[in-house]
Every structure is written in C-alpha cells, then in structure tokens.
Specification:
414 residues, alpha/beta, six-stranded mixed beta sheet, 11 helices, globular, binds flavin-adenine dinucleotide
Amino acid sequence: MTYKCKSVGIIGAGIQGTCIGLQLIKKGIPVTIFDKNDPGKMTSYGNAGHFSPYAVLQLNRPDVLYDVPKMLFSSYGPLALKWNYIPKMIPWIFRYLKSCNKKSMMHTAKYMHQILNLSMDAYEEIFQEIDVTNLVERKGIIYIWTKDNLKSRKLEIKVRDKLGIKQKLLTQDEILDLEPNLNRVFHEGILYEDAIHARDPYGITTKIFEQYIKRGGKFIKAKVKSLKQTNETETLIKTDTEEYRFEKSVIACGAFSKLLTDQLSEHIPLDTERGYHVHFKNMEHLIKRPVIFLDRGFGMTPMNQGLRAVGTVELGGLKNPPSKKRIDYIVRCAQELLPQLGKHEDEWLGFRPTLPDFLPVMGPSLKNKNIIYAFGHHHLGWTLGAITGKIISGIVTEEKTNLDLSPYSSSRFN
Ligand SMILES: Cc1cc2nc3c(=O)[nH]c(=O)nc-3n(C[C@H](O)[C@H](O)[C@H](O)COP(=O)(O)OP(=O)(O)OC[C@H]3O[C@@H](n4cnc5c(N)ncnc54)[C@H](O)[C@@H]3O)c2cc1C
C-alpha cells in the first residue's frame, strides 16, 4: 500500500515554506503554514532577486580565506563583524575554517550543483501556475571585477567549465555595450545569458502563497514557541496560545531555525550572514539587468521598487541592530558604479541562513523522523526555493528519488 501523509505543519512562510506548502497541497495533503510575520516578509523579501543556478562555488574556499584579514581591516570592504557577537560564533567559525580547503570546496560545489541544476525547471513549473507578468525579467546577469580579483575569478571560471555551466567572458567594452551607464572602474566580467531575475521577490512569494491558499492551504499568523514529536504518528506545534497536532512538521524558519532545532537536542551550527539593501527610486532604468561587482561583494538589480543596491556579509547574529556603516558602504559602492545616483531610501537588513560548509540542511531530524528540516540556503535561498519545495515534499511523502540527499543531512555535524 502506498503511504499517504495525513497532515503537515510548516513553520516559516519564506520562499522555502511557501514552496514546500504549495507542493504538498498539490499532492492532496492538508497543510498549515505558521509564521510570526506576514508571508515572505523576512529575508525572502529584500534579497537581490537573482536566480543563480550557476553559483556553485560558495565562500568556503581557500582563496576567500586568504583574503579575509585584508577585507576585515579595510574600512571599505565587503566583510564586517559585530565584535560583541564573535564569541558566540566561535564554533561556527571553527567549522568554517575546517571546510575552507579544496576538497570541501569541491564537495560543496558538487552538491550545490546537483540542486541548482534543477532549480530553474522547478520555478518554471510554478510560473506556469501563477501570473509573473512584470515580476520576472529574462535579460541575463552580469558579474564584473577588477584586476586585483583575477585569481579567484579564474578558479570560479575553471570549476564552472568543469561542471558544464554556460558562461560568457566579456571585456570591459563588451560590458559597456550592454550597460552603457556603468563607470569604467572594472576590468572585465561574465554574462550569464540565460539567467533571469525577480523584479520583486516579495511579489513572487506572495503569488506562490496565494496559489497555496487557493488550493486549500491554511495559514496561522503566530510565533511557534516549541515543536516536538510526541509519537510515531504525531508532532506537536505550540504557539503562545494554542497547540496544533500534525502527522509531520517542517522547520523552514531560515536563519531562525536553530531556535527550534536546539529544542530537539540537535546542535546544528546554523548562523547568519547579515546582508543589506537600499533603493534608489526611479533609477532602475540605469541598468537593464543585475550587475554584481565582485571585488565589493555588492550588486544592483533593477526592480519595481527602484534600483536595489544589495550586499555585504556581516557576521553579527540575529539580535544586533543594523549597521549604518554597512548601508553607507553599499551606497558608496553603488555611486562608484553609477555616479549619477543621488539619495537612497528603504534601508533594509536581512539574515542569510548559513551553515559552515555552505550546504543547506534538507532532511528528517536525526532523533525525530517526523520533523523535517528545510533551512540554511545561505546566499542562494531565493534560487533554491522551488526545488526545495519539491525535495522536501518528496521527503514528507517518502517518495523515491534519484538525487543523493545524504550531503544535506544534519548528520554531517555529528
Ligand atoms: C542581502 C541579501 C541578498 C540576497 N540575494 C539573493 C539572491 O539574489 N539570490 C538568491 O538565491 N538568494 C539571495 N539571498 C538569500 C535568500 O534571500 C535567503 O537564503 C532566503 O530568502 C531564505 O529563505 P527562507 O524561506 O529560508 O527564510 P526567510 O525568508 O527568512 O523565511 C523564514 C520565515 O520563518 C519565520 N519564522 C522564523 N521563526 C519563526 C517562528 N518561531 N515561528 C513562526 N515563524 C517563524 C519568519 O518570520 C520568516 O517569514 C540574499 C540574502 C540577503 C540577505
């Protein structure tokens, strides 16, 4: 007899939670999503909107590690620390240092590639169901760099070539032909011709959520205080005021997931890489497609809200206030590339959910098999939303898969 799950509770209505909810409800399973905020209002709200299936190499790399001291001691660098948080982050930093070698880097690249490679087909399927007019643009994505950055770029190009990823190297002049407003402060770059971007990530998450509700999904706006598996066929979700029982539950709380996994006596080293954005209103016409300046760890995306300038990595946890210096850094980077930019608006801080080996956690809890994890998608959680929905719904319904899901298990931290 085939197994049919009777009910699922999902904690978190970011891009992961809404995509998981939609896939499960399509399988005819009753689903309730919980979120302390309105759907799509946390990190999935303010990201750069790039769908980046090519971005297989992450930050656990020897060359990045080599650059860290220089980045930290520069007042104009892409990496910053909130010193009061660093003692709490030491275990994460240790594990990160351990995974900054060529073997771990290639392991991450291989298993990021496995899911990134399927990410766009999974979205295209969703885009057949929701109206994405004026929400998705198909004009490619450009990365640029200076001569200071050639070693890291050569490594990335080589790895992507090895994995068969399509990339087009461009000279400065070729880039200026595509984006004539850019200042000549870079040396060369790459165009991902087939890449697409969101003109409003929040608008897309909202459409997916609406589709989930239309198909019969439920939503409860409440903070989940605790979660446990009570027996073989039941999990219990508690909010401040109520208790809810489901056969299975999914944790999809992004960077906040650790608050729940710690309760399950699994010490998963999830932390956050904080990132910021600002908008330059009515300036989105200055570029046709996203442009990312790799030396600066920052990029600009033309969006419905204006030109969104996004970036930096700040290690500082979930509770520290936003840093004015990081916002100033992004504004200066944007004005370096587009000197015509004036005043900015809408300063925003988001929390990338990141494991030290830069692979997400997707799979059942080690001690509670009816609780399933779906978090830790770091810089690529927007790109990976739709495929995560498919993978997690398959795990919930115990379907067979050809994918090797073992590298995403939380058991790797035991
Ligand atoms: C500056 C920046 C730029 C980025 N750019 C890109 C990009 O261009 N491309 C890309 O692929 N990725 C990008 N990312 C990464 C991407 O945005 C994230 O990985 C992704 O949004 C994470 O989605 P999520 O659903 O896991 O988490 P979230 O969007 O944070 O959603 C988690 C949800 O859980 C809820 N929640 C948490 N705890 C509880 C609780 N106890 N009870 C109830 N609800 C709870 C929260 O309210 C939230 O709604 C970027 C990130 C940042 C910060």
